[in-house]
């Protein structure tokens, strides 16, 4: 049986031995054997576990990766595979969303979204439902000055016009690729000024990022399959 020292694996994966120990402490890998002098050593199974963790982390969020590794470690392979499959579904939905809003911008048609005719003014709940986000996110974006609401004269509730909903849709679609508030403000100004070329480029970048994430996720899945076979 081929074995490896922590330093050998750390060097190969370009991580620290502390990182390897942290994965062990988080219960992400099989039990680690020790030498008679109480030094850790790893088998091919452990090596593939570490490779899988590093590969999955490039395409998936940390909590998902850790849960997948724990499920695999405990021989719950089908559950682990369904979990990564669910993430594939989420990225597909995100891609469709970005494409739909991009088409809406390209056609300069902001009267309907997903074949739903938009009202002149919508409550925060209606806007959140259409955009597929939480009302707390909309309140945060308003607090940051990205969007603005009016108030219902009768009850004081927030009301969002179609132009503001359009901004909400853009923010919700690009929040993972436009990281800074000032950059988002500039982008929304382009939207207001009908400078759609710059807005469209941002959406194309979002699609490229999703494509890259998909590739990384698939590579992670390939390593996960190898790991399951090792187990």
Automatic annotation (TrEMBL):
Signal peptide: none annotated. The keyword DNA-binding applies. Gene3D superfamilies: 1.10.1660.10. InterPro entries: DNA-bd_dom_put_sf (IPR009061), MerR-type_HTH_dom (IPR000551), MerR_fam (IPR047057). Residues 3-56, 121-190 form the HTH merR-type domain. PROSITE patterns: HTH_MERR_1, HTH_MERR_2. This is DNA-binding transcriptional MerR regulator.
């Amino acid at each position: 049986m081929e074995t490896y020292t922590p330093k050998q694996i750390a060097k190969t994966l370009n991580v620290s031995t502390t990182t390897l120990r942290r994965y062990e402490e988080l219960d992400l890998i099989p039990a680690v054997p020790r030498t008679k002098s109480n030094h850790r050593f790893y088998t091919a199974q452990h090596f593939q576990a570490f490779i899988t963790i590093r590969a999955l982390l490039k395409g998936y969020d940390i909590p998902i990766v850790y849960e997948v590794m724990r499920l695999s470690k405990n021989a719950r392979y089908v559950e682990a595979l369904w979990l990564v499959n669910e993430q594939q579904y989420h990225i597909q939905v995100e891609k469709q969303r970005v494409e739909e809003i991009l088409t809406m911008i390209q056609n300069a048609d902001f009267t309907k979204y997903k074949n739903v005719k938009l009202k002149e003014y919508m409550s925060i709940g209606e806007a959140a439902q259409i955009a597929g986000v939480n009302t707390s996110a909309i309140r945060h974006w308003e607090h940051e000055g990205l969007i603005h609401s009016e108030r219902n004269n009768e009850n004081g509730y927030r009301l969002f016009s179609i132009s503001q909903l359009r901004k909400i849709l853009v923010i919700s679609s690009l929040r993972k690729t436009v990281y800074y508030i000032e950059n988002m403000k500039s982008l929304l100004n382009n939207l207001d000024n009908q400078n759609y070329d710059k807005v469209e480029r941002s959406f194309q970048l979002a699609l490229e990022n999703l494509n890259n994430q998909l590739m990384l996720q698939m590579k992670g899945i390939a390593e996960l399959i190898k790991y399951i076979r090792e187990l």
